[in-house]
Design a protein that fits this description.
Two copies of one chain form a homodimer.
Chain A (H helix, E strand, L loop, with lengths): L3 E8 L4 E7 L4 E7 L11 H9 L9 E4 L14 E2 L2 E2 H6 L2 E2 L6 E2 L3 E4 L5 E4 L2 H8 L7 E5 L4 E7 L2 E8 L1 H11 L17 H11 L4 H4 L2 H7 L8 H23 L6 E4 L3 H13 L4 E3 L4 H12 L12
Parallel strand pairs in A: 1-4, 4-8, 5-9, 11-14, 14-15
Antiparallel strand pairs in A: 1-2, 2-3, 6-13, 7-8, 9-10, 11-12, 12-13
Chain lengths: 312, 312
């Protein structure tokens, strides 16, 4: 393991993932543990880190982390920095844990047109990893529990917007009347034809609080099978997210910008289908964006030096 | 109790309420029990009815019910009738329980502009009770778990639209990240100033899946107190419902129609505030709309006769 130059950790709410990188930013190995911030009790973060790293703990190399570990409920608070945020902005705002175990990337905040704040913590690092040297104007989309849409210009995060799409999908099926007539979908199953029907509904204008009710009424009317409800609802919510976020990108002057999707394969597949239905061309980013972002930020902060880095 | 002419029952999912009416449609007494359709096991509806009515069971008068008791999960299925629905349409579609214990009002269905079905069961009867002889064009709003907006012309229900506002409010606070930073509100408490702020956000255009996130970010930024989150969220959802439903009423040609609010006082108060903020004049309907509606339908079905009815 003597070729290790950096330990990089994506430390979220429910789980943590560690990467071992060489002096050119290449991922040599990775490890994960269900030791998210909410699973660590009484502030025992040092012990959690030792468990996560295992024999990597003995390596005398810099360690950098992003995610909820830097929140008020985490190990050390790394206060939000405000948009626009360049890579260098993140690098100079790193915060070190009390015992020097780890440096932590700050979260990012911005305000929308109505002056309502928005926040991210962890995604700024994925975005840093997803930026490309040639990016002039790009839209980077990170689908998930709280989808993030970011407007990127060169190495700069200009603005972003959060959509609670994934969390809405989960709670609507688990805790509302819409779940009563639904047969749950197998995790990661590819979308069936009801997904496209839902996307079409989502891409159209409408009131979400009304449109959702279709997940019940279509079944009552015999127009939708109980097994198809999760796909229809997923399509509706993703379609509506795309409709609304495109408007947001338009107001930000990012019409026609490259749209880059980053995330787990099954979810990115769904979004790619929905984007195709909306006639928007997308490219897929690399899945290891968090590790790449941590490497880039560590370079900018001069935590790693020497060699000819693969990444800038 | 010899002046009793009709027993009228509003029999919903979680509770049932019985009214004793005289020969002019006046409510003489009412009783309720937590014997909603979901609480009755093994089809023991006759026993539940006896418990609800108590000594009223001995009265030899017609009995009529509305609500989920007429659903597939209820005592007897009273199939949906399609809009437009006149009072007489409901009267001729009554269904009788197998042992003749009760006649049941059917639910109503309609299709929206995208041909997605909508349904109500119980609200059609409240609407029947809320109609006024002079109504030419009116909008009747029944706020609640599933708010219903109805376009009414004379004695006819022309179309309606459901908004899952109340259910969204509950599950968002109870089961999503938005509840984590919120201090629960006292039931029925009057709205504080954050309600108006939320309504303003709701009346503006925006993506619900994004706007909701403000219930978290405003607290993180110190712009909203944890105690004010429920009011802000309630305002946002009610404001958005009003914005969307006005558009629906507009497309239906009901601009400028009287808007009549029917429901429990605390909720109607909130909606009245939000309507005032949207510059829409509203009138309040009487709270006993279900009993009045059941009386009117019973009259049209000739279940009650004679005397000079107070209600037509």
């Amino acid at each position: 393991m003597s070729d290790t130059a950096l330990l990089a950790i994506d430390w979220g709410t429910t789980s943590a993932r560690a990467y071992r990188l060489d002096g050119r930013g290449k991922v040599l190995a990775e490890r994960s543990a269900p030791l998210g911030v909410l699973a660590v009790r009484d502030g025992a973060f040092a012990a959690a880190l030792a468990t996560l790293l295992g024999d990597w703990s003995a390596l005398r190399v810099p360690r950098i982390a992003c995610g909820m570990i830097g929140s008020r409920q985490g190990w050390v608070e790394a206060p939000y920095v405000a948009c626009p945020v360049a890579l260098d902005t993140l690098a100079v705002a790193l915060v070190t844990t009390p015992g020097d175990e780890l440096v932590v990337v700050p979260g990012v905040t911005c305000r929308d047109a109505a002056d309502i704040p928005d926040v991210m913590r962890g995604e700024e690092t994925q975005l840093a990893g997803a930026m490309k040297p040639g990016d002039d104007r790009a839209i980077v989309v990170l689908p998930g529990t709280h989808s993030k849409w970011a407007r990127v210009e060169g190495n700069k995060l200009v603005a972003f917007s959060t959509f609670m799409t994934g969390e809405l999908y989960s709670v609507l099926l688990a805790h509302t009347i819409l779940g009563r007539l639904a047969v749950p979908a197998a995790a990661g199953a590819p979308p069936g034809p009801a997904f496209a029907t839902g996307v079409a509904r989502g891409l159209a204008s409408g009131a979400v609080a009304h449109d959702l009710f279709g997940a019940r009424t279509l079944v009552l009317a015999g127009d939708l099978a109980p097994e198809a409800v999760p796909d229809w609802l997923s399509g509706l919510l993703i379609g509506r997210e795309i409709r609304a976020a495109r408007l947001w990108a338009h107001h930000g002057g990012h019409d026609g910008a490259v749209v880059r999707l980053i995330g787990a394969d099954a979810l990115v597949d769904r979004y790619a289908l929905a984007f195709a239905q909306a006639d928007v061309a997308v490219e897929r980013g690399r899945a290891d964006a968090a590790a790449r972002g941590l490497w880039r930020i560590a370079r900018r902060a001069h935590l790693v030096r020497g060699g000819t880095p693969v990444l800038q």
